[in-house]
């Protein structure tokens, strides 16, 4: 499976961005997807998670109410709408799938990763 993120950039405080993750399934069909972020000097952490079958979503406390994970099944694309951005949201954002169970916000429980897209809020 291949994941390609896009949509990052520089934005002002309280601005918005929409990240996209194009998933090429090949022989693996994802049942869950997640967005993670990693700021310089910090560990990668879960931001949002979606079970593709049910549409159930989970968010970290830091972004709940501001970020929304969604999907376009026809385009095999997952989105992360980011509103009311704060300087502390500045990070590299990664799309991931291949969840092996465990905690959805733990990057060690995911098998497949995109290359990331940078978000800078100032």
Mean pLDDT over all positions: 95
Radius of gyration computed on alpha carbons: 13 Å
Following the backbone from N to C, one meets helices and strands in this order, namely EEEEEEEEEEE
Q: Give the overall shape.
A: globular
For the record, give the distance between the C-alpha atoms at the N and C termini, rounded to a whole number.
34 Å
DSSP strand content: over 45%
Let me know the largest β-sheet.
Answer: 7 strands, mixed
Helix percentage range: under 10%
Number of helices: 0
Q: How many strand elements?
A: 11
Low-confidence regions: none
SS-based structural class?
mainly beta
Describe the structure.
By secondary structure, the chain is an all-beta fold. It is built from no helices and 11 strands. The radius of gyration is 13 Å and the shape is globular.
Quick structural gist:
This protein is mostly beta strands and 122 residues long.
SSE order and pairing:
Blueprint lengths: L1 E5 L2 E3 L5 E8 L7 E7 L6 E7 L5 E3 L7 E6 L4 E6 L8 E9 L10 E4 L3 E5 L1
Parallel strand pairs: 2-11
Antiparallel strand pairs: 1-3, 3-8, 4-5, 4-9, 5-6, 7-8, 9-10, 9-11
